[in-house]
Amino acid sequence: MFYSNLKSLFLTFLLLSTVVVATPLRVVSITNDFASIANYIGGDRVKVSVLVNGSRNLHDIQAKPSMVLSVRDADMLIRLGMSQDKWIDGLIEVARNSKLFPNKPGYVDPSLVINALEVPTGQIDGRHGDIHIEGNPHYWLDPQNGLKIAALIRDRLSQLDPSSADLFNTNYQQFEKELMSKFSTWSSKLSPLKSDLILSYHLVWSYFVDAFELNFLATLEPVPGVPPSVRHLNELKGKVSQSKSKIICAVYYPQKVCRESANLFKASFSPLITNSETEDKEAYFKLFDRLVVDMTQ
What fold is seen in the domain 23-117+132-184? Predict the structure, then answer.
């Protein structure tokens, strides 16, 4: 009887040990976009939370105490990088989670695996405005970069949980297949816009227009961070007067200015979200579904 009970206790211990090992990796993502990709790749082997929901200017975020708690308990942190989310460094420092220190598998900066656009060269000074010295940080808006982000997340999850590496790779392959199929559909639907001149308030859409081979002309801002001037708008009006044009404007930039400029240029106007609205595994695809609809209305 004694040995029978001991055996039962031992089996119970083994079962509980297995449960502990099978605990999902805790992933904290700066945005819904990266979170969606992590959910797709990680499946039930990850539990993903998001620091900043929806379309926001990530450069202007103020860190909250609740964010510190999330980072403190995380196995992986996915940030934006390119010096656009320096407040993340403060979270890591305060949380004192060594798993998320730079060069650790749990520290994930996708900006390091993409080809950055608009990296400035030469001497930079105040005349250039609020320029991004490491290049344009809106890289997730190119679906091809989404594939690179997914591969990076796959590799890091595999380092943290080697026993699930095959699952992560299988999910990545499915992600790639679905993304490429949808990319073909998105490209086809956006094709009629290739003859339009595209303008935006700020340099948010460079990766998007590059990915879909659209014709980007200029920003309403004369230089980054400087509001449009009458002189600059009149110069742009002269450039688009003989062409079909469209102004696209991220929802967190001045919609009134963009709408009035569209009226001045006799251009169409599309306010656009910049980020996925949820973190479910299909949300990253839904972002482009929404962008394509809003661009072509």
Answer: Rossmann fold (3.40.50)
